[in-house]
Design brief:
Strand order of the largest sheet: 1-3-2-4-6-5
Structural class: alpha/beta
CATH superfamily: Uracil-DNA glycosylase-like domain
Shape: globular
CATH class: Alpha Beta
Number of helices: 8
Order of helices and strands: HEEHHEHEHHEEHH
CATH architecture: 3-Layer(aba) Sandwich
Bound molecules: uracil
Number of strands: 6
Helix content: 40-55%
Distance between the termini: 25 Å
Number of domains: 1
Largest sheet: 6 strands, mixed
Strand content: 5-15%
CATH topology: Uracil-DNA Glycosylase, subunit E
Length: 191
């Protein structure tokens, strides 16, 4: 079995373990589907958002709403194909009214993301927004302080950037998100 198929099989095994997850209150909140994450199981780049919104919950896929459309456009401009990367989230179930995930919800869900990253073993991780950045880097810095810089998560280059939903509200920051995606693409090539 080739590496990509093997990783796909491992991801499917953990999906089976989590698809009816009841570990935190988000399971009972407004969940229609868990949003496990989507993309190439052998990706060089992993993008990590915060948690599913309404459209993601309905479709069971990450970043399929307005923020996702913007992300797709920026990825394309940065010469990154969505099909080549893997997109996941800190929490896999929709927080009610799109509120921030609570610490207990993050703590219950984080082991799943860690398993996903360890299976995929990307060369670069891009954290989208402050929730994802603070969770993975274990700090409470403002995203404006971290974005565009290179960090490490378990020895994997990690580049924080703005969340595309923030860019929809603050379009002037779009070049920053684009630049950070380009930096991610560059770091994949350097590896
Ligand atoms: N926002 C996120 O953080 N993740 C999604 O999957 C969609 C919107």
């Amino acid at each position: 079995m080739d590496q990509k198929k093997y990783k796909q099989k491992l991801l499917e095994e953990i999906y089976t373990q989590y698809k009816n997850c009841q570990r935190c209150p988000l399971a009972q909140a407004e969940r229609n589907n868990i949003v496990f994450g989507d993309g190439n199981p052998d990706a060089d780049l992993m993008l990590i958002g915060e948690g599913p919104g309404r459209n993601e919950d309905l479709q069971g896929k990450p970043f399929v709403g307005r923020a996702g459309k913007l992300l797709d456009e920026l990825l394309e401009s940065a010469n990154l194909k969505r099909g080549d990367i893997f997109i996941g989230n800190i929490v896999k179930c929709r927080p009610p009214n799109n509120r921030l995930p609570l610490p207990n919800e993050i703590a219950e869900c984080l082991p799943l993301l860690e398993k996903q990253i360890k299976i995929i073993r990307p060369k670069v991780i891009c954290t989208l927004g402050s929730c994802s950045t603070r969770t993975l880097l274990g700090n409470d810095k403002k995203i404006t302080q971290s974005r565009g810089k290179l960090f490490k998560w378990n020895n994997i280059v990690t580049i924080p950037t703005f969340h595309p939903a923030y860019i929809l509200r603050n379009p002037k920051k779009m070049p920053d998100l684009f630049e950070d995606l380009r930096l991610a693409a560059q770091n994949i090539k350097n590896k």
